[in-house]
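Q: For a teaching handout, I want to show students what a protein-ligand complex looks like in token form. Below are the inputs, and the small molecule is magnesium ion. Please produce the holo structure.
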Amino acid sequence: MSEGPARAPDRVYCAYVFDLDGTVYLGDELLPGAKRLIEGLRAGGRAVRFVSNNATQDPEQYADKLSGLGLETSVEEVVSSIVVTTRWLLDNAPDAVVFAIGEEPLQRALGEAGIRMSSDPAEIDVVIASYDRSFHYRKLQIAFDAIWFHRRARLIATNPDRFCPLPDGRGEPDCAAITAAIEACTGARAEQVLGKPSSAVLDAALDGLGLDAEDCMMVGDRLSTDIRMGLDAGMATALVLTGDTKLDDLEQSDPHDRPHFVVQRIDELVPEGLWAELDPERSGAA
Ligand SMILES: [Mg+2]
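A: Here is the structure, written as tokens, with magnesium ion included.
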């Protein structure tokens, strides 16, 4: 095996993109060191962003959850797959008529972005597959008619996840199940699967910051999504061992998904000797 990842970075980056579950919190509790790290980074003028693949929750809900856990967070700091999907449509198919198989927060965000929505298969240009706990046969029929019968609609998916883990160890079928149902009957393939590890997530998260990828760090608990995405973007990557990936998994993982850094606690991402750099008085940062 090649040389293993370094434990902790030797610099402070300009921006940090954090996965949420297993990285910043677990269920309904902040993970040890999360508040110290994130508040320290902000105090030192570093940009902080949170990313999630869950399309049933909008940024307001995540910001409220984080604030409720004691980590004050603004909506602008959160990029969920709802944000990524809305942005993709505005950039790539701004005039499209859209049929979204997804829950209310997704429908609301698309409507607020001025995207035209329809359930008439004869006028649908884009079908969006998403995590939808009110999925039923009629929605599948509309997608089928728009894609197969009328031969006009493109298919995209909000995220690639097969299931969404629940705190009790169970799970719920996620977007991949809906995407597969549409692909199975139409023979179409989703031309875009947004959410991590798509580069569209980091494009949205880092938009407007004007930073080079090598000055930004991606932090997460999953190798094939969080870490893969950061590596593909040319960012520094750090795995925290507080979630999905254990040290054993790391040793057996695909060498192409290995992070630059591995830490037990998230606040180890700033080594003790570098915390002074985050002091606003000393660094002069806003
Ligand atoms: Mg996670």
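A: Two things your students might notice: The chain is about 35% helix and 20% strand. The chain has two domains: 15-53+198-283, 93-193.
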